[in-house]
Each structure stands twice: as C-alpha cells, then as structure tokens.
Amino acid sequence: MRFIAFIAALIIATPALAQGIEQTKGSFEDKFRQLDEVLPDPNVYRNASGAPGHEYWQQQADYRITAELDEKKRRLTARATIRYTNNSPDALPWIWMQLDQNIFRKDSMAELTNTFGGPGRRGPSVSAASGDKPAKLSIGELRRQQSMADNDFGYDIGAVRLLDGTALDHTIVGTLMRIDLPTVLAPEQSVEFEIEWAYNIVEENAVSARSGYEHFPDDPRPGGNDIFLLAQWFPRLVAYSDYEGWHNKEFLGRGEFTLEFGNYDVTMTVPDDHIVASTGMLSNPEEVLTATQRQRLAAARSADEPMFIVTPQEAAANERTGPSGTKTWRFSAENVRDFAWASSRKFMWDAQGHQQPGAENETVMAMSFWPKEGGELWRKYSTAAVVHTMKVYSRFSFDYPYPTAQSVNGPVGGMEYPMITFNGPRTTLNKDGTRTYSLSEKVFLVGVVIHEIGHIYFPMTVNSDERQWTWMDEGLNSFLDSVAGYEWDPDMPWGRSIARDLIPYMTSSQQVPIMTQSDSVLNLGPNAYGKPSAAYHILRDTIIGRERFDFALREYARRWKHKRPTPADFFRTMEEASGTDLDWFWRGWFYTTDHVDISLDTIHKLRIDTEDPDIDLPRRRQELADEPEKVGVRQNREQRLPIWVLENPGVTDFYDDNDQFTVTPKDRKSYTEFLESLDEEWMRTAFDRAVEEDANYYVLSFSNKGGLVMPIILGLTFDDGSTEKMMIPAEIWRRNSRRVKKLLVFPKGKELSQVVVDPNWETADANIENNHYPRRIIPSRVEAFKSPDPKSRTGRDLMGEAQGSKKSSKK
C-alpha cells in the first residue's frame, strides 16, 4: 500500500466514526467508563478525594476482662465490663455483640450451610462420588465430625446486666446477640454493662479454627501438654458505621471481622508454670516473671539480636513438672480493635527491641514464643522476620503503632490480631533426636510471619471491613509481604503474589470478581490475596511508577490509620494522590472476570513513496523481481524447455524492451503537478523531509482476546542487535477495546527484526505465544512413561491374590 493512501485510509476511518458505527450496532463497550455510578456518593463522612470527611465518626468500645483457663477441662470462664460510647449522630435503642464461638455449635448457620465437597471453612476437603467411584471423605474430616459430635461448643452466656445489677434483655441470633437498652443511647453518651460467659475450647487440629488448643501427648509430663491460642474468645461489639449501620452479618468463617477500637485491661489466670503472650503490655511482670527474666527483658530492649527471656532449658523444665497453682497475668492495650492471647508451659520466649526514633513508640519489642518443636527454625527466623516486617511496612505506611509485635507458634497456620500473631511452621524430629526443616518450611515461616505481622498495619490499624471485603486487607498485605519477601531474600521461592502467578486463576472458569462478598468467594486465596496483590504490583511497577504509587499508598494508610475505610475510599485516594485516573483499572481488575491476553496479530512495514517516477518505479520493479520465482517457470527452466519469444525474434515489440514500470512523460508531469499541489510551505517542507529521511514505518495490529484492557508493553529488537522497551498506555483501547493499530516510526537503517508484547511478564498476559512477532517455536519437553497397570478390580488377578501367589509379569 502506498503510504499516502494508507494515511488517507487512517483519516477516513476516524475513531469517532468507528465508535459511532460500533455503538449503533450495540457492540461498543466503554472500558474507561467512570466508576461514579458504582461507588457511593461522597458525603460529610467520606469525601470525594477518598479522605475521611469533616464529620467522620466511629464508635468506641472499652473492655475490662477477667478470664480463667481451666487446663484440664480445656474451658475458659470470663467476665467483662464493657463501656460503649456512641459517637454517631444516631440514637441507639439496642447494641449488637459478636459471639464468634457460636460458629462451632451444631446448629450454626456455618455448620448447616457447609456443602459436601465444597469450600467454606479452613480444613480438609471432601469430594462427591463420580461414576462408579465412591465419594471421598478425608480422615481429617471424619475427625472433625467426631469432635463436633462429642463436644458442646459455643458460648454459655450467663449474666447480661448494667453495673447496678439490672438485667438486660438479650436475644441470641446465631453468632450475634442483641442487647436491648433500658433507655435509648443518645449521641455522645456511653453505657456500661457486664457480661459473664464460658465456653469449651475447640481442638484446632480437629475442627480447623482460627484459635483453640493443641495437645502434645508425647511430652515428658504425664498426660502431655497443651498450647492454647485464645482468639474470638470474648463477646465483642459489632461495628456500627456511617455506611451500613450495624454490621450484623452472620459469622460464617471466611469473612473475618470488622470491629471497633477501644482500650483493654485484661487479666488471665492460668497454671503457674505457663507463659502467656498477649495483645498489649504486661502490667505485672514482677508477679509472673522471675527477677532474671525481667532483667533479660529489659536488656533485650537495646539488643542487636534476639535474646532469650525464657530459655529452652527453662521451657523444658516447665514441660517436665506439673503446676503447683495458678498465676494471674495482666495486660493493658490502648486503641486496639481486638485482643488475643496464648498460654502454654511449652513456650520458650525471645525478644529484641526495634527502634523507631521519633515515633510514638520509639522502642517496639519484637518477640517470639515457641515450643521445642519449633527448633532452630524459629530461633533463627521468627523474631528477625518480625523486625524486618516493621522496617519494610513502615516505609509504605506509618511507624509501627504499638509497643509490642509478637509471633507465637501453635496449631493455627497463620492468623493476626493487634500486637500478636499465630504462626504454624515447625521442624521435623529425626531418629537421632536432631531437628531439621525443609526449604518450604523455611519459606513458610518467614513468609507467614511477615504476612501476619503485616496485618497489624492492615487491618488491625487501617480498620477495613474483613467481613465484606477480604481483599482490602489480604490483597494489600499480600502485596506488601511479597515486597518484604523479595527484600529479605530475592532468591527464595516466593509465590502467589505477582502478576505471572495469577494467570491460571484468571483464566479459569472458577474465577469470580474481587468485589464478591467474602463468604461467597469460591477460591479465596487467589481471589482475595493473589489477584489484588498482582494488581498492585502492576500499578506500582508498570502503570503509575514506584514513586507515585508509594506516595499514594502512604497517603491512604495515613488518612485511614485507626479509622474504617471502604473500597471507594481506597480507590479514590489512590487516584487522587497519584494523579492518575484508574477507574478503568478498578473496573476491569476488581469488578469483572476478564483476563489479560493481548495478541500481536500482524506487523506491516511501510516505506514512503517519493512520488518521483524515476525513483519509485525502479524500486517497484526491483520489489517484483525480488518475489519468489513462479514454480512452473522454475521447473520449465530446470527442464530446459524452449521459450518461444527467444526462438522467434519476429514476434517481439516495444513491451519486450519496456515493462510496466517504464517511466513516461505523463508520469513526470503527474509528479510535477503533485509537487505544485503542495501549495502551502509547511506541506512541501514536511513532504521533502519525509522523503529525505526515508524512515521505516511499522503498523502493529493488536487484538484484546482476554477482555481486560492493559498497557501494551513492547520489547523491540532491531537488525543491528539493539533493543528498546516501549509502553503504550492502556488508554489506547479507549475507543475500541477489542482491536487497535499503532504506527511506530524508526529512522532509516533502524529496522525491526522482532517484537514481543509484555517481554518481562509484567501484566499477567495469559498467552505469551501470541505475544511474539514473528511467532516463535514454542519450547517444551517430552517425558517417556510406562503405562500403568490396571487399577480396577476387574483388571486385577484376584485369583492369584487369593492364592497368595505372585506371578511374573507378562512380557
């Protein structure tokens, strides 16, 4: 195609015209439509920039709790005095409490709606029968069913009363309890009341919970020892917010918590040989720690590396002897949204001070608690990973906001609460008594500690609503834990959190939008953890750039520290602070199940015509001569068949000496007339320059096969061996989200030899084979295999098996 004609074709098929035609046909889809119609309207509580509004408010709940752990019965008994302050503009006739332990009742909604073979809780899975094969039910699931049948779980609620003893009417609704107030709680007023309760602690390994006990029957003490992880252990105030009122959605297991901030004063009475780790600061160390342990704890504040507070020898001695009585540990915590603790005689304990000059808590005590089963793996890596996490996360948000950060080993694989986390990996005991661990256990420990300590920032401080939007904290935290992981050791095999890890999920039929409510998500890991994390990596490293993305994320964290953000607040803040319209990104990545698959279909190389017949026509003659010789003509030549015009000169004429590319006076006249038609100086100047430069023009045709619009990242390789990287913003798809063409111009002598879309796998492009032009030979491998023996009962030699003989295999 002549270049002038090509340009004319581009002008005629203007985007506006094409858009109009497509829209009339009903096939136009605006991937860049703004989210204003989807997001809630800004108001006095949450403004259009994504910041808290000038009348933002949130409730406060303060607790004074006394609890007693009955180790033998594995039962907790407690009493709480709760002060609830109504900072809302609404008068409240009742308050709602969360009773999360009720999820383990046999008649709970979670238990009754858990489907056979489907997800819905942490733990072993089951699968349905298929054809003539029986259904599968894991031994772990059998154990769970038996534990649920043999025990009565859930809260036993005793008194619910005002401080003067007046009983309060209350109604239990599954995992919720409504307490009716004698008088309406007006704005800016508080109410104080008491609750007494008890419950049987679940065996975590049996029922797969977020807390519970773990029994070690082979420990030295007769009957063994336990580790108790106590979380969701007390009735907690349901959140009341400006955007939903009471958040009274049933706890089904996956959608975690949204809670109110408050102050805590908690005492726990436990066997006197137990060590307790807890949210908050220990208020009575002189009553529960030895003088030597208190000295070690003081020294650890300025230590360069973790040092033992309770040594392995002291922990071993506690395991061998029984308790002589009880001890009461007391902890206080300010401005936290939850409270958890752990207790065991098996714990050794190390600590190291993390310094934050100028912060509210200039020294944070990073601490770990673990049994001997944790071994050197925990001694080397747990507290070190706690410190590393605070250093990295604080760069992206704010100084660590609390005085302690703890990692506790127990049966829970990974769970977070203010100032304390539960983490699961351990070592393997060998026959010679040594303990070793695999690389995967090392990666698991470092990764889970980073992840769970990171949760103390999100959502324990930036208080997003986990019950509805798991991705708001899990996705952001998975992104940051991957950043921290690569800063810990880039050669460790991290996974799941960058774009290339999410391709299988994003192309699967089981994908649901990220914005799906937490309990309705089928595959929670890739949906709420991995896919949002991959999105943030793409925003940071490809679309926005690190400087602006990091600034925006810090602004989001700062704005919503100790407050309750919604998705709209996050989306708006990231756009407002980065100066980037990202509605197309949020819409495609968070609200749809589209995936990325950009195909580079063709590349046309164009060369400008000079319009001078004495130049262009000889070039066209040569282009024709360079085409492959016709097959029949070649075979005639090889057979040496005669050519008539060569053997009969009398039949020749003008056209035997002149071909279709012969220049005529008319051609030269047309050229002169064309130059005269460029009647404005800029036209002649532009044309003459283009002819002189004789640049290489390439038209690249792309199709969007996955539906998700993304920037088009190009890796360009030239004939001279040089390479370039080019990024075309996603807005190239704004008028046609299915097909686009892009003109690239390079100087004479700079000729493309290869183009690759997304050469560094930045965008989760699902099919990299249509990214190459020219198409590459696809590398793969083949493995030899032996056909398996028949496994069906009809294919087995039951006769031989019954006789106990073993025949030689057939050859």
TrEMBL record:
Gene3D superfamilies found in the cross-reference section: Neutral Protease Domain 2
GO cellular component, one term: cytoplasm
EC code: 3.4.11.-
GO MF annotations in UniProt: metalloaminopeptidase activity; peptide binding; zinc ion binding
Stated name of the protein: M1 family metallopeptidase
Bias type Basic and acidic residues, positions: 783-799
Residue span(s) of domain Peptidase M1 membrane alanine aminopeptidase: 387-589
Pfam families: Peptidase_M1
Gene Ontology biological process terms in this record: peptide catabolic process
Signal sequence extent: 1-18
InterPro entries reported for this sequence: Peptidase_M1_aminopeptidases, Peptidase_M1_dom, Peptidase_M4/M1_CTD_sf
Keywords: Aminopeptidase, Hydrolase, Protease, Signal
Positions of region (Disordered): 114-134, 779-811
CDD domains cross-referenced by the UniProt entry: M1_APN_like
Transmembrane segments: none
